[in-house]
Amino acid sequence: MVSLTPLDASLTPVPAPASKRKRSFRVQRALLVLLIVGTVELLAWSIAVPALQEPDEESHFSYVQVIAERGEIPWQRSGGSPGGPVSPEQQVASVWAGLQPLLANPAARPLWTEPDERAWRAQDAALGRDARSSIEPSSAFQNPPAAYVYDAAVYVAVGGSFFDRLFALRWANLPLLLVMLAATWVLARDLFGDRQGAVVLATAVVALQPLLTSIAGGVTPDLLLCALFAVGLALSVRIVCRGPTTGRLVALAFVSLLAPLTHGRGLALLVPAGLAVLLSWPPVRRIPRPALAAGVGLAALIVAVLVLRYAERGGPTLSDTRAFSSYLWQFYLPGLPWMNPPPFEGWTIRDVYIDRLYGTFGQLEIMVPGWVTNVLAGAGLVLAVGVLAAAIARRDALRRMWAPVAVLVAAAVGAILLLHLQAYRSLLVEPGDPVITGRYLLPLLPVLGVAVAASLQALPRRAFAVAGGGVLAAAVLLQFAALGAMITRFYA
Amino acid sequence: MRRWGTITAVACLLIGGALWVVPWLTRSREMPAAVPSPAALFSIELVELGPGRTACSQNVALDPRGSRARLQVGTFGRPGEPLRLTLDGAAYRSASTIRGGYADGSVVVASLRPPARATLVRACVENLGTRRVALMASADRTRSRSITSVEGRDTGKSAWLSFYEADRHSVLERSPVTIERIATFRPGIVGPWLLWPLAALVLIGIPTGAVWAWQRGLAVEEARMVASASEGDPSAHRQERGTAGDAARLDGGGDPQRAAEAGPHDKRRA
Q1: pLDDT tens-digit map of B92-113
Q2: Scanning A466, A476, B6, B94, which has its CA 20 to 30 A from the CA of B105?
Q3: Partners of residue A30 in chain B, C-beta under 8 Å
Q4: Beta bridge partners of B54
Q5: Residue A414 burial by Cβ neighbours in a 10 Å radius (0-12, 13-18, 19+)
């Protein structure tokens, strides 16, 4: 276990329990209230957004339907088209409820009268026996099945009409959202200890994130992935702070294996989980530092070669590695004169980390006003500077907390690097799609929440309270802006 | 600390609400009553109508608030021809004329008598002029269920058609209608009885809950700070217990971890 000392009003780990008395589950009232806030948001998004209007919802529903209706898992290496042929039942709902013309089409509105519903019911009732099971592969079928198996259980349990089952699947995300929020709370509490204002702020940043609640309101594997990531991060930090008990290690192994079975992006959880186990393993702590550094350097070199080989689809060669580095550089920073344009020019950190993460919803046609994302871009810069300043100002505390901080940094770097690798690899053969988008960053929201709280809590207490109040209010207003944009798009 | 944090959050929310949320709720805007066949997203198709010809679309839903029909018409570079829009449904019929002379590709509006309640109609457009016109239509995935036929022959396209309210309204004014519309194509459990409280929870519950959690967190933090600062002062211990011990017990048991969190002063649990 990495030795940690309670610190001076900064990143303070919670001391381990003095004795092994009977455990109890006690939920802080502030956490309870944030869980209720998250519940209200999920209900609002899931009910107000018409069926099949969340990203790839039609193909996710198809996947669940295959498992539930045919009793088979359609996981395959290559999928069909994004909106591959769905079941006749889904097709009838798409056409007769006006959901297909509505997709990403700002000129369209959902059909919303009672005669519309009657017309759909008549068509639905006339469908044959295979109406729910005759389904062709779609692109989602490349995803591993864990989330869809969970959804299939809900699908079977609920039954009823197409809309009954689809909305039940949306609401089945509620426990996952609550787990994610509770795990963020636990993570923040392990890091901030008695600074409960910071714990609340870190959790609220996640609970009020509009894209998270929007995605949670649709049929998707993303939310299970987010919940597993949050639990995995909380466990990893607890292990490096308090030591690896059998229960913690088993739980971490479980979520680390389940995450890649939920989505390929879940592989990134192995990075912080592996690091946490490594750092808390007593023999590792006994290795002399030079030997440890040499070992880490060698491992990093091997991983780098494998990673480059994957991204470059072979090699790695010097020219391909230079091209990959150039792509990575130009994603975050302005290009330098000797650099070639990246495969998908103009797709930068601003597009993914701000515009897609905070500014667009649904099929990307729901947008908050441009000035909001401009302000957020500025806030992102302030946050980056704030984190840096806090790290310098609290360097002594940071030095004592290096292990959990390293785990969180590894989680962020690992997940983002994996996205870039996958995006670059894909861009080499299909340069028309930048792949990497805002919702892929949602599993890292707990890290963002902790970063925001950590940067603010380096301020004097009163300044922390004022700045935190402003951040909290801004988060609520952002959620309102997103909800308002959604209501305007579909109903006004 | 708690007071400053709470005041800031409430003030920012009030300012943001006044500048942003209230104008969004109260600004008058054009309100669609129904959009049976929306404009295309990728490619525009044409449904050509020669002089005297009629194009009809079935299964067009018409809402009682829809009193302006909108079509988009191509005229092949010449002034537009007069058209007649006829809506036929069970116990409902409306016919209106669109005057000629409109520009090529323009959206034309026909006033109509709305039905008493929502109904499915057959919408027909007749070319009353002497030259051909073309209705803009969709044949990609934005094609609606209301496929247009010309003189009974299926075109495989849906001519764009939408209905708007005569007057402008705000989101707030139209909230009862919006609630009804949201309940359509939803499970039976979703109705106005659920949606009204949910709307109130969104507008009031989310900001109130977030601010409450924030001030609670600051209060707990403040109490622990006071307790740490005045070690050995019994009044500080009482204050700490009163505020910091806010964990809601779910099983009534003690929690050594929380006791440790509360600091060495809380002898009840540690």
Answers
A1: 999 999 999 999 999 999 999 9
A2: B94
A3: 212-214, 216-217, 220, 246
A4: B126
A5: buried
Instruction: Among B178, B188, B213, select the one facing A204 at the smallest CB separation.
Output: B213
A301 touches chain B (CB under 8 A): no
Delimit the domains of chain B by residue range: 1-29+168-248, 32-167
Q: Distance from first CA to last CA of chain B, Å, rounded?
A: 27
Residues from chain A that touch B249, judged by Cβ atoms under 8 A, are: 24, 26
The alpha helices in A49-195, defined as continuous H runs, are: 57-70, 88-96, 99-102, 114-125, 146-158, 162-171, 174-192
CB contact under 8 A, A492 and B171: yes
Supply B214's token pair: 């924030």
Q: Which of B97, B102, B94 is nearest to B83 (CA)?
A: B97
Determine, for residues A33 and B217 on separate chains, whether the beta-carbon distance falls below 8 Å: no
Residues of A with Cβ-Cβ distance to B21 under 8 angstroms: 477, 480, 484
Cα–Cα dist A423/A428, whole Å? 9
Query: Which tens digits make up the pLDDT trace of A141-165?
Result: 999 999 999 999 999 999 999 999 9
The owner of tokens 């030591």 is A243
pLDDT at B240: 43
Cβ–Cβ gap B260/A14 under 8 Å: yes
Residue A111 DSSP one-character state:
-
User: Coil, strand, or helix at residue B199?
Assistant: helix
CATH topology of domain B32-167: Jelly Rolls (2.60.120)
- Does the distance separating the beta carbons of A37 and B210 come in below 8 Å? yes
pLDDT higher than 90, residue B242: no
Query: What ipTM goes with this model?
Result: 0.90
Q: Which two tokens stand for residue A405?
A: 């901080």
Band the pLDDT of B123: cuts 50, 70, 90: very high
